[in-house]
Specification:
mainly alpha; Cytochrome Bc1 Complex, Chain D, domain 2; two-stranded antiparallel ribbon; 11 helices; 49% helix; disordered N terminus
Amino acid sequence: MKLWIALLTGIWTLGAVAAGGPQYPLESMTPDYDDKTSLQRGLATYSHYCMGCHSLEYQRYERTATDLGIDPDVMTSALLPESKKIGDLGTIAMPATAAAEWFGAPPPDLTLVARKRSPEWVYTYMKTFYTDPTRPLGANNLVFPKVGMPHVLEPLQGVQRAVCKEAPVREGGQIKTDPISGNALTAEQCGVLEVVEGTGTLSAAEYDQLIYDLVNFLEYVGEPSKAQSHDLGIKVLLFIMLFFVFAYLLKREYWRDVH
């Protein structure tokens, strides 16, 4: 018994260490694989703002066009780089070694990002960039502090700044500190963001929809067959239910004389 308690305690401790302490609360987000319009808009957002740095190297353009109901000729002319063919994988031209020199690390491939992090994580991450002059690229993030990525969607969302919920970071000319630890309050501890009025081309609702469509598309890319699997699963369950009825009636027929 003591051995089991020790093992469970060790597993719980390792889990707490791996989690890295409390994390920023994630917003709810439910993907909809049947909303082809949303998926198409998400693809457009990815191709305009993300494709330059982030690849989809495990997904073929042709599969995307087929699943999203896009004509292959339209896909080729509107979204594919000139050097790509419709049957190619979604790799990018940026060399990984050069990207590591420019950004400190090569930008990650996005094919499986929603499956690795969860759609809620990606959704909240894309909404919580804020301006931070202390960072090399001028931006930080509440979900991923000290992020090495610029806020590429800032022209759409607007300049977002971090403020304290109950008081400004500076109070009476002094940096506001935590009353318990005495440490200076950071933007992550304040945890509240506000968009500077007039700096973005989209309203808050429009920007939320844009991010939803993008994350919806990335969730689809992570498992393109998921929608078909769900549909097939329902058909299989219905078949099993129907088969059970006939199997039960056959069982009664076989055992009728026995009883």
